[in-house]
Each structure stands twice: as C-alpha cells, then as structure tokens.
Design brief:
Number of domains: 2
CATH architecture of the largest domain: 3-Layer(aba) Sandwich
Order of helices and strands: EEHEHEHEHEHEEEEHHEHHEEH
Radius of gyration: 23 Å
Number of strands: 13
Strand content: 15-25%
Distance between the termini: 23 Å
Structural class: alpha/beta
Helix content: 25-40%
Strand order of the largest sheet: 4-3-5-6
CATH topology of the largest domain: Rossmann fold
Largest sheet: 4 strands, parallel
Length: 361
C-alpha cells in the first residue's frame, strides 16, 4: 500500500488496488439541513414527518464554515425563511474582536439567547467554537465543556443543535462514527446521522443514532437539487427503511469495503494518523469497532506498523506507529502524587497496567 490522493475528493488516502475514499465529503448537506430546520421553525411550517408546530419560533445560528452574506443568508432566503426570526451570531465577539469560544465565553451565548428569545441554537460545527483547552478526544474534557451549554439551554428553554463531522474509522457502528470523543453524543439527549443512501447516492438519509426523550424515530430520506440554477428546495421522500448502523453498513457494502481486514486497516490508519499510540489506547478504541486482536495484528503486518517499547520509571509501554512516523521520543515520568498509601497504590496501578490482547504477539 502507498499514499496518494483520492481523485474524487482530493483527500490523502492509502492505495490498495483501486483508489477509494469513504471519508465523508462536505457536500452531504449537513449545513443546508440545519438551515431548512430553522426555516420551518421561523415560518411555522410542519416538519418533514408532518409534526405540526404550535407557533413560529426564533433561531440563533453560529456558523464558522460559511460566509454570512454570500452563503448563509442567500440559502435562508432561497429556502423561504422568515429572516426576522433568525439571528446570526458572529464568529467573533463584537466587544472583544476575538473568536467566540465555549464554554469560556458561554455568557455571550446566554446574552444573545436573552436578547433574541431563540428556541433553537445551531452550532456548526461545534469544534470550531470550543476553547483551545478542550480536548475533543477526551471524554471528561468534552463533557465538562458541554455541561455549561446544557445549563444555558435549560434556563432559556432552548434546544442546542451541534453539528460535527464523521471520523475516518470506517466502521458500521454509528455510535462511534462521530468525530472526537464519544462524550459528544453522550452529553446529547438525541443524536442523528446524515449520510448518502447506498442504493440511491443522489439522496441523503437522516437516521437516528440515540434518543433519550422519545421512542425510536424512523429514518427519513431527502434530496437536494442537482442543478445549481434550480431553486434550493429539499425534497422529502418519506421513511427510509433502515437504521443508522444499516445505513453505514450499506454504504460500505456497496463499495466492497466490508471485510474485517479492511476495516482493521482503516481503523489503524485513522488512529495512528497523528502519531504513535499505546496498545492500551488502540485496544480500548478497537472494542467499539468489533475488531478482534487477531484481525488487528494481521492489519498491522499489512501496514508495516512499527512497534516500539519504552521503559519509563520501570513501566513498559508498547507503542504502535505508521512506518512514516518518527520514532517515539522518551518522555519524563509524571511527578509523584504524595507519599500516602492510596497514592502509592495508584502509582503501582499506573506503572503496571493490565496487558491487552495486542501485547501477546
């Protein structure tokens, strides 16, 4: 296998036979779908499943990827939104001129909710508005960042819709396909997946991943105009017979990418893309992808993954890295936590972590 670029989307991919890239591309319609939702709320039109609104509602938009004047507002006008009910919060705080960062500047969001009376807040994408100290791959850090947003939403009786992209793991478990930590989806009461219909690629499907507030909801199919000159209208086609996991599985099956070995290779490429990882980290993430240790070991050999064992203060750590990565540099041990008995036991547990099946080969 060797590196190259996908001719379809231009992303860096690995080549084995034909070029194939199943990383989600930006044209899947996530932002347009959120704008259509705001349009329905602002005008009081029913939702695609015919759910009726008691009255129109105001919306607050935070969009970091599309320009307000050249993209967001023209799209809202084309969709027929009531612009008097939709408020766009600038990416930068007008008082400081600095980018709005959450939860550090959650008072900016609360101030604008009080001013507009919005019942829906769209943050697209959520990672663009998080403070630099938020570790998006760390569950506790993500939950700590989102907790203040939940409290603001509760105080103002508003819903917060956070948009995030899919990761590159390529598995069929929709619960684990969102970018960053699973803490994002854990903090939400409802989560949905937007992906292409495997049988009709010109259509998109909105499928539920989780719902803590209501019974399971059906997946819905829709399409966008293919002619750039046509009116921007989403055409809804009703219920799509399948779940979010089946939606991802169907897309991969249609591309012939469903072998366990291929999934394991895609998983390792994604996990090791930004540098070496310990076998403990790799194995913990692999559990959510239904990958066996034997399959991972075979994929490791196919990719010529480099193994390096490092001894830090008597603790042996085993790292995996892609062959193009530099060897891991030894790091200094962490400082002591004190001399009490419990701290001593914690240091022993950290020093001698349990082995994973990946260390038995």
């Amino acid at each position: 296998m060797r590196r190259g670029r996908c001719p379809g989307c231009g992303r860096a991919v690995w080549r084995s036979g034909n070029w194939r890239c199943w990383t989600p591309t930006p044209d899947w319609g996530k932002s347009i779908l959120t704008l259509e939702l705001c349009t329905r709320l602002s005008t009081g039109r029913p939702f695609p499943d015919d759910t009726r609104l008691a009255e129109p509602a105001n919306c607050l938009l935070l969009n970091a990827e599309d320009g307000e004047q050249d993209t967001v507002l023209p799209r809202l006008r084309a969709l027929g939104a009531d612009l008097d009910r939709i408020y766009l919060l600038p990416h930068e705080d007008p008082n400081t001129g600095m980018p709005v960062r959450l939860p550090t500047q959650v008072e900016v969001l609360e101030r604008n909710l009080a001013r507009t009376g919005a019942r829906l807040v769209v943050i697209d994408p959520i990672v663009a508005f998080l403070a630099p100290w938020v570790l998006t791959s760390h569950d506790q850090s993500v939950r700590q960042a989102l907790y203040p947003l939940a409290r603001v939403a509760e105080r103002h009786q508003a819903a917060i819709l956070m948009v995030r992209h899919l990761n590159k793991l390529g598995g069929t478990r929709s619960l684990y396909r969102g970018g960053g930590s699973i803490g994002f989806i854990g903090a939400c009461r409802s989560a949905w997946l937007l992906a292409r219909d495997p049988q009709l690629p010109e259509r998109r499907v909105l499928a539920q991943i989780k719902n803590n507030l209501a019974p399971p909801q059906p997946s819905l199919s829709f399409s966008m105009p293919t002619d750039p000159a046509a009116a921007l209208v989403l055409t809804w086609h009703g219920v799509w017979d399948g779940t979010a996991d089946e939606l991802l599985g169907g897309a991969l099956r249609s591309a012939g990418l469903m072998t366990p070995r291929h999934r394991a290779k895609e998983f390792l490429l994604a996990v090791l893309e930004n540098g070496p990882r310990t076998t403990q980290e790799i194995w913990e993430q692999a559990q959510g992808q239904d990958l066996s240790d034997r399959t991972l070991q075979r994929a490791r050999k196919n990719l010529n993954v480099h193994i390096k064992r490092v001894c830090v203060d008597g603790k042996i750590l085993s790292y995996w890295s892609l062959p193009t990565k530099e060897d891991l540099e030894d790091t200094a041990p962490a400082p002591d936590d004190g001399d009490d008995f419990e701290a001593w036991k914690r240091r022993l547990r950290d020093k001698y972590p349990p082995a994973t099946p990946l260390d038995d080969w």
